[in-house]
Amino acid sequence: MPKVIYIDVDGERHETDVANGLSVMEGAIANGVTGILAICGGSCACSTCHGYIDEAWIELVGPPNEIEESTLELASERRAGSRLTCQIAMRDELDGLVVHVADNDG
Amino acid sequence: MAEPPIIVVGAGQAGLQIVDSLRRGGYSGRLMLIGDEKSLPYQRPPLSKQYMSENMSDDRLLFRPADYYEKKGVELILGEQVSAIDTQARTVVIDGQTCEYAKLAITTGASVRHIPVPGAELEGVCYLRSVEDAQYIRTQLSSGPQRVAAIGGGFIGLEIAASARELGHSVTVIEAQDRLMARVVAPLVSEYFGDLHRSHGVEVLLDAAVSGIERADDDSLIVDLTDGRRISADLIVVGIGSIPHSALAEAAGLTCNNGIVVDEFAQTSDPNVVAAGDCTMHKNARLNVSHRLESVQNAVDQAKIAAATLLGEPKPYEQVPWFWSDQFDAKLQMVGSSVGFDRTVLRGSIADGEFSVFYFNDGVLIGVDSVNRPSDHVTSRKLIANRTAVSDDVLTDIEQNLKTLL
Ligand SMILES: Cc1cc2nc3c(=O)[nH]c(=O)nc-3n(C[C@H](O)[C@H](O)[C@H](O)COP(=O)(O)OP(=O)(O)OC[C@H]3O[C@@H](n4cnc5c(N)ncnc54)[C@H](O)[C@@H]3O)c2cc1C
Ligand code: FES
């Protein structure tokens, strides 16, 4: 199973397996990663699953689509690598992915 | 003796958020979360959507993993109902036992409105509020092709209709009003969704009032309409609205009026009791209205307000309400409220299935419904929050980005 490394809002590191097909958001929720709220449950409607893809991974993960791009505008502090983690499906290629959680509780 | 805890009654979206916000806000005292459902706290929106259409597993519904509660020092009691509150003694009764509280938060949600017609109690007539309800429906739908009748053309009925249709069942939506989602959207939006459902093969009956439900000779069910029409079905799902869970609060002497009445700080009529979510009739300081809402946004934002009040750092509730509903490939997103509109402006194309309807009252933008136009929705949230003046010219010209109005 591919691994994801989450660095949560408090700087804590969570390294965890996330099954292929689950979203990076779901991996965070299932492992109690602080800061990923995901109140719309992955419907791309809330932006509270906002995270920053680590620089080394940005290209492989790819850019947001149009819908996600719009919803991202609700997110706090957008930067390079900003993504809604509910819109990234896990796949083998992303094994080792590093995601820095944004402050979604502001 | 141990200090009395903050007790949160109702372990749903709002209850979980209060607990979470209290801990994040630095409250380190005892904290108890009590829910009468057996499951760990879970989200409801997927129940009529992916959970039904994609056979999603139960654990994917959970808000937090099982160890979260222990890690956060939350005394979680599941499968037990709070049967009484005594605001004088500051106690609640759980499973016959009396527990003292320092402060109390009521987040008891709402329950489905039952359909008051003969035959409503027949097996095969069901409702959807809980994961158990969803499991029942899913089991029925997986036992072979079914004729599904959804009574009520509101969000839940329509989402169930779409999910069941996507699974290949034959589906009839029965709505008493002359259009779908009549309480909340403009006629134009109702019409679009009617056409959408029909184009996917759902039969949509309007002006169709149910007079009764019967068991047919072949053991299936029949929905009788007042105009004499009879609709055969194997499964009937009723979605005709909900009723706030406020009886417990009312019996405790708290002021209630279609929900537990709270002010903009989520404060009830008792200074030691706050309430949040579907169970409240609440004040929105920005919109200057009192209303009861059933949405994730309201449950979460109001719970944060309730937590702030419990922490002694009150801030007023002034978030602009928003809501979403997914039906087939249409994403409906709503912001504000269209209640009391005197004028609408259309942006985009209904024929292309990408449009927004802007609602005005006395020249002020009060609400926007968007279908597959998330950028309109997102910008509208800001336009309404800031009370920005908007001109029809910009709204009606899709070449112009709404952001220029901000
Ligand atoms: C099928 C479905 C689809 C939905 N889709 C959407 C959507 O797409 N978008 C959206 O914004 N909203 C949607 N909603 C609405 C949203 O889920 C609710 O608004 C939200 O769950 C409200 O949270 P709450 O905490 O107020 O109530 P709830 O989540 O209902 O939680 C209340 C809890 O308190 C418990 N309880 C009640 N009385 C007692 C007692 N005396 N003692 C102990 N426990 C008690 C209840 O059993 C329940 O578990 C949907 C709802 C349903 C049912
Ligand atoms: S969970 Fe709401 S946008 Fe990702």
Q: List the domain count of chain B as a whole number.
A: 3
Low-pLDDT sequence parts of chain A = none
How many domain modules of chain A? 1
Record field, number of beta strands of chain A: 5
CATH superfamily of chain A: Beta-grasp domain
Number of alpha- plus pi-helical segments of chain A: 3
Helix-strand pattern of chain A: EEHEHHEE
- pLDDT average of chain A, as an integer? 95
Q: Work out the number of β strands of chain B.
A: 26
Largest sheet of chain B: 5 strands, parallel
Oligomer: heterodimer
What is the SS-derived class of chain B? alpha/beta
What is the CATH third-level topology name of chain A?
Ubiquitin-like (UB roll)
Largest sheet of chain A: 5 strands, mixed
Q: Order the strands across the largest sheet of chain B as they lie in space.
A: 3-2-1-7-19
- Proper CATH architecture of the largest domain in chain B: 3-Layer(bba) Sandwich
Assess the beta-strand content of chain A as a share of residues.
15-25%
Summarize the structure.
The complex is a heterodimer of chains A (106) and B (406). Chain A is α+β, with helices and mostly antiparallel strands and 106 residues long.
What does this protein structure show overall?
The complex is a heterodimer of chains A (106) and B (406). With 106 residues, chain A is of the alpha+beta class. Chain A has a single domain, classed as Beta-grasp domain (Ubiquitin-like (UB roll)), CATH 3.10.20. Chain A has helices at 24-30, 58-61, 66-72; strands at residues 3-7, 13-17, 50-53, 82-84, 97-101. Chain A has a 5-stranded mixed β-sheet with strand order 2-1-5-3-4. In chain A, a hairpin with a 5-residue loop joins strand 1 and strand 2. The radius of gyration of chain A is 12 Å and the shape is globular. The N and C termini of chain A lie far apart (33 Å). Chain B has 3 domains: 6-111 and 242-310, FAD/NAD(P)-binding domain (3-Layer(bba) Sandwich); 114-238, FAD/NAD(P)-binding domain (3-Layer(bba) Sandwich); 329-405, Enolase-like, domain 1. Chain B has 406 residues and is of the alpha/beta class. In chain B, helix 1 packs parallel to helix 8 (296-310). The mean pLDDT of chain B is 96. In chain B, the strands form 7 sheets. A 5-stranded parallel β-sheet of chain B has the order 3-2-1-7-19. In chain B, strand 11, helix 6 (187-199) and strand 12 form a beta-alpha-beta unit. The chains are: A alpha+beta (106), B alpha/beta (406). Chains A and B meet through helix 1 and helix 3 of A and helix 1, helix 3, helix 8, strand 22 and helix 9 of B.
